[in-house]
Amino acid sequence: MEPTQHTPGEPVRSGIPEHGRVPKYYAVKARIAELVDELGEGGLLPTERDLALRYEVARETVRQALRELLLEGRLRRHGRGTVVAGPKLEQPLSLASYTEGVRRQGRRPGRTLIGLDTLPCPPALAPGIGAEAGEPVWHLERVLLADDERVGLESTYIRVARVPRLEAEFDPDSSFYGYLRERLGISFGDADEKLETVLATPREALLIGTPPALPMLLIHRFSRDQDGRPLERVRSLYRGDRFSFTTHLSPG
């Protein structure tokens, strides 16, 4: 038997099981995906009713196929219709800022400030940012934007003693890393990161503008400065349908 031909990076045999029995919605999804490629970014998809008639299936079958394509980021809702989405944003797993990563892809980064407050440092957070339990820390929360589209939510915790004039000097729509580097001379040395998939809370989904059932990519980062001292903790939540992450690996 000859080896099955498939495109590198794609599922072998397009994900069809060896017994050959393909769920009806999956077959419809494959045909809609072909239509998506033909329409191109921004193209308006026919209605569920029209697709059901075209492929001679029930509307619920079409609905399930569309639901998966939406979750995968191939489609997006636009008003009362559905259009072809653009390519996912590729964010490097590195100490580069969100701003730098988005600009490299020709997109316009932005942020909407949700809050900049001080709070007593919780004991569990203290070691990661080099603080004493109870001392004042900043909590900076912002919605992440790419070409004015809401794509994530970011929370940053850092000691007030490290950035005492943050509230007066920092532009919330700009890069926090750029502020640390250019205004305070603080550079990043290294960081520990953990990436996992989660569902957004109702509050997070409302802020990002997504359904609560949409999978999210969550990154926890503890960063240290150029002298190896703990600096910040960042909790970044990214839309799973709009983001992918890249990294370069080398022998350890």
Helix percentage range: 25-40%
The average pLDDT value, as a whole number, equals 86
The termini sit apart by 39 Å
The description of the largest β-sheet is: 6 strands, antiparallel
Q: Which class best fits the helix and strand makeup?
A: alpha+beta
Strand content: 25-35%
- Strand arrangement within the widest β-sheet reads 4-5-6-9-8-7
Secondary structure elements and their pairing?
Blueprint: H1 24-39, H2 48-55, H3 59-71, E1 75-78, E2 81-84, E3 89-92, H4 98-103, E4 109-120, H5 126-129, E5 136-146, E6 149-159, H6 166-169, H7 176-184, E7 188-199, H8 202-208, E8 215-225, E9 230-239, E10 243-246
Parallel strand pairs: 3-10
Antiparallel strand pairs: 1-2, 4-5, 5-6, 6-9, 7-8, 8-9
Helix pairs in contact: 1-3, 2-3
Walkthrough of the structure:
This protein is an alpha+beta fold and 252 residues long. The chain has helices at residues 24-39, 48-55, 59-71, 98-103, 126-129, 166-169, 176-184, 202-208, and strands spanning 75-78, 81-84, 89-92, 109-120, 136-146, 149-159, 188-199, 215-225, 230-239, 243-246. The strands form 3 sheets. A 6-stranded antiparallel β-sheet has the order 4-5-6-9-8-7. The chain has a two-stranded antiparallel sheet with strand order 1-2. Strand 8 (215-225) and strand 9 form a beta hairpin. The longest helix is centred in the N-terminal third of the chain and has 16 residues, at 24-39. The protein is elongated.
